[in-house]
Amino acid sequence: MPVNLPVPVAANLFPVAGVRIGVTEAGVRKANRKDLSVFLLDEGATVAGVFTQNRFCAAPVQVSREHLAAGQGIRAMVINTGNANAGTGAAGLANARATCAALAKELGLKAEQILPFSTGVIMEELPVQRIVAGLPAAIANAKADNWAVAAEGIMTTDTQPKAYSRQVQVGGKTVTVTGISKGAGMIRPNMATMLGYVATDAAIAPALLQSLVKELADGSFNRVTIDGDTSTNDSFVLVATHQAGNAQITAWDSADAQALKAALLEVSRLLAQAIVRDGEGATKFITVQIDGGKTEAECRLAAYAIAHSPLVKTAFFASDPNLGRILAAVGYAGIDDLDQSKIDLHLDDVHVVVDGGRNPSYKEEDGQRVMKQSEITVRVGLGRGTASQTVWTCDFSHDYVTINADYRS
Amino acid sequence: MPVNLPVPVAANLFPVAGVRIGVTEAGVRKANRKDLSVFLLDEGATVAGVFTQNRFCAAPVQVSREHLAAGQGIRAMVINTGNANAGTGAAGLANARATCAALAKELGLKAEQILPFSTGVIMEELPVQRIVAGLPAAIANAKADNWAVAAEGIMTTDTQPKAYSRQVQVGGKTVTVTGISKGAGMIRPNMATMLGYVATDAAIAPALLQSLVKELADGSFNRVTIDGDTSTNDSFVLVATHQAGNAQITAWDSADAQALKAALLEVSRLLAQAIVRDGEGATKFITVQIDGGKTEAECRLAAYAIAHSPLVKTAFFASDPNLGRILAAVGYAGIDDLDQSKIDLHLDDVHVVVDGGRNPSYKEEDGQRVMKQSEITVRVGLGRGTASQTVWTCDFSHDYVTINADYRS
User: One of A24, A176, A193, A200 is an active-site residue; which one?
Assistant: First the structure.
């Protein structure tokens, strides 16, 4: 059961002018399953992406980077589930290229105008024939109001689709932001990927798009963690179709531009948080906020040390205010000159630790009351400066082990 | 059930001349439990130690460092279980000092000649009165052949005591090396500590001892991991009593000195590996060996990424040769210029990955045969240089979650 994650309602997902999406069943790994999706983008769309930092990145990630760099104008994306095309060597690269070539041929485009994405089993050969055979049906299915279907079409072991949509006014024009995501850990059977796609019809100067997608990722997908296992295939793509009729945004300083960016960030963040809410075995959604750091980097070190600690995560699962584990994680986070006597810890509104020791007025029952909630904020003060960072994670339950220890089938 | 870990036999643990050990029940946290141990060292013994790198280190770690630095000649150590005296602020430091002062008074020593150690619950006040009240009984119990009892006396949630002993000839004299350890994760109820104590009666130049204890730790306790949670209290202490009658060792280049060092390293490594074999919920003992690195540091990055990955560890628990997870962990280990096309992976004798892709001759049943074993070696070749490193870890089972999600009681 995902944690407080509503199922998307198709009628609430606004189409984005210039984007059509088609989904089909290609039988990549299993029959009777939506496993192949195509995004078709009108000419003139601008696309930017950020990809996994994993050095063992999958073939489609390598090809997507190449095609974005080629600058031919991206006109389509193709996403298969069931197979990650990772750890597949030279054959994997050839298969990712063959997929792009086949879709390009169907659409009358160049292969460099296609971005490929794969998610699923690692170290098995991509069944490229089945994917190519499925492309015509996916294209035939393409329509503007297919976001909810696509959210389902990119799922692997996600327990439910993830999609959000917002509209804002920019220069008197209604601008739409709609996105989908998938991921629930590095997933059985080692489905290894978080994928996120956000599109807007806003006119945004193409030169702004790459820094924008990086900024959105840093405020959303780069701030969530389930098990600390960075996948081989993570990808987050932003599409701007420029069809909303607004005057092109060339800087972010106007109120309208800020409103658009806020909508983009909200959709990105909700999509990223949805992955945590649907995290493997998750029973709680945890916000880890670090304040008082010298730098944002050291705040992230502390936040991830807490968010990745199996001991902290099992304590959340147990609703056990075993808060020494949080202190210990801050202590080993790698902040060399940390002064433990300045550490402060809150659990929601409960002040647990002051000056590195137990707050004299802290009562265990107050800690336990918060720990029993399904949404919890851990707030650590480092007492060193003014930097802050926030990370979202989930707890660590028996179901996590069950899901990940299940033999691939 | 620990993995292939024999219960120590008291008769096989050779006393170390100049070391007597006493153990008693002080009721630190629970009644009827051996929870207070003292090591009494003859005058002239040399002591060196290495301690947790956790910045949130416990009060006894801070005091032990001070007392070693004071250079007054360490003559006793006192170890309590049931309470870690960590996250206890200024009161915790005062309690650790009070424990030393009380033992010094009983023994006619200075407080600076005592090293204190605590392991158990974090963020609760040390019941120093009960510890002080127990000291006379611990001292009265002191004897040379008490190593097996001490191994039991320092246990927290360890399922069995851990002790090893070796004798070697140095310059025609029999030299003894005996040690004990404890730890099984950062443990319920957040017992947070690996402790290791190794003593030898060999005469070793005192100037060599600190670098020796560091070298032994680097080859043993610093190479094991259960859940990646560095505790607040980790300590490893080496005692040399100089009573074996051998000519003092002033360098390590002779064959005899090498034999002694090998015995010290073997005992240290067995003690460290015993902690992994008794790791919380462990069903398998995993050796992770990285070869072909440019530096030992980057080999350690890769080894720990594998050893800490919840996905890798759950796959071992399931006996599932889900080996893409190992590749993914190597990929995110932080080796920036890693070339995935040079990666090689063996599981014991089975060659799984060659040139970053699946070995054409690899068969899943071969991988599964190895994964079903209780002892498994993962060997990754990075193809970048000649450096190697080895780390030992265990798998990640339902019992780990059960143990760590159990409410403290």
Answer: A193
